[in-house]
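Go through the following before class.
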Amino acid sequence: MSPPLILLGVSRSGTTLLRVVLDRSPGLAIPDESFFVPLLARRHGKSIDAARFLDDVARIPTIRDWGVSVADVASRVHQRMPTGEAVAAIFEAYAVAVGKPRWGDKTPMYMRHLPLVEELFPAAQYVHLIRDGRDAALSFLQMPEGTFTRTWAHPESPSQFACLWRKEVRAARALGRRVGAARYHEVRYEELVADTGAVVERICAFAEIPYEAEMLAYAGAVDVSAKPHQQRLLTPPTAGVRSWRADMPAEDVAEFDTVAGDLLAELGYEVNSDATSRFGARLARGWYDARLVAWNAAASVVQRSPLWRRRHPRLSA
């Protein structure tokens, strides 16, 4: 198969909308968020023991929910296969099942694991969707309980979300500089919703996948009955759905701008010039970084240990 197309973006930046549209191309299959890529990489290192890898595949609900069986994956893996190729085999099995020649992924959590993604999929292309962080913060902080698995690093305030947004957007742009324009394409959410067809057509040209006008006719064709946070997929793209200027309290705007105003300005977004506390910004970012490092370390230990298998019984043969 062709190299994967990885959609990058901070949570609540419009990546689900973009996934749904691109998944309607006859040249690309992008399933719901995977979550399991760092898990399998941690558990299997550089190369796989095929039996152990397939046993883990049988314990991951996401893979079952995609309609991919262990047998589908088993036919594509072999002993001592590089772990990245083995993980790709899961996505390839999904793409074949839905009749597509190429696979992609959209999992915002992977914005925290970009060096790993780069290592596992060395030929991948990336589309990075950037949204004004204050609008993304409004959406994220209003998410209903139970939508996310809350971790130690889960942002609970505009300042904490600003730390996440700044860190992840900078990391993705740095990846873009490393891999170059042939493999990295940057898109603004504001442009995507204002002129969806033109933006999607450019993305398809970049990724060399077919563009069809029917890709934009997703409204009503997507089942969001179990996803209260994705109900806007029932309607066409709409500009100005969230507006920090109208809906964000001034103190929250200042809190966000203090932490991430430098990147907002770099990207050309309007910034409150009064938010200039460099010490406060460094303190907030340092505290968030420490929490994130602690969470990732704890998750890595648990996922590598026998405890993970005890907590995740086999779901299929």
